[in-house]
Amino acid sequence: MTARLDGGQDELFHSFNLDNHVPQSHLLRGIDRFLDLRDLRQHLAPFYNPMGRPSIDTELMIRMLIVGYCFGIRSERRLCEEVHLNLAYRWFCRLGLEDAVPEHS
């Protein structure tokens, strides 16, 4: 008779740090060292209208576009999928494991 894995319950709390799972030599770490987008929202704020649907965060969009450019991801749909799945891309885009990736449309 073979042993079966007990399904059990998932852990209620799990400590996971994306920074620990992105190698120090990763291309995106090198880019991140020199990329400073902190003031971008402030500079672009006058161009956003408070009415209508909420927009995608400017810094997130630029970081995603940099990922797409560096890794040859031309499709927005594929870029969103890759950022959703790849831990290094999530780290670079400042998204945690539970954070939603913007829709491609």
Strand content: under 5%
Number of helices: 5
What's the β-strand tally?
0
Q: Write the element-wise H/E pattern from the N-terminal end onward.
A: HHHHH
Integer-rounded radius of gyration: 18 Å
Whole-number mean pLDDT = 88
Q: Give the biggest beta sheet.
A: none
Unreliable parts? none
How do the strands and helices of this protein lay out in sequence?
Elements: H1 27-34, H2 40-44, H3 58-70, H4 76-85, H5 87-92
Helix pairs in contact: 3-4
Q: What does the model show?
A:
By secondary structure, the protein is mainly alpha-helical. The chain has a domain at 18-45 and 55-92. 40% of the residues lie in helices and 0% in strands. The protein has five helices and no strands. The model has no long low-confidence stretch (mean pLDDT 88). Residues 17-105 form the Transposase InsH N-terminal domain. InterPro entries: Transposase_InsH_N. Pfam families: DUF772.
Top keywords for this entry?
Transposase_InsH_N; 105 residues; Transposase InsH N-terminal domain-containing protein; 5 helices
Short structural description:
The protein is mostly helical and 105 residues long. It has helices at residues 27-34, 40-44, 58-70, 76-85, 87-92.
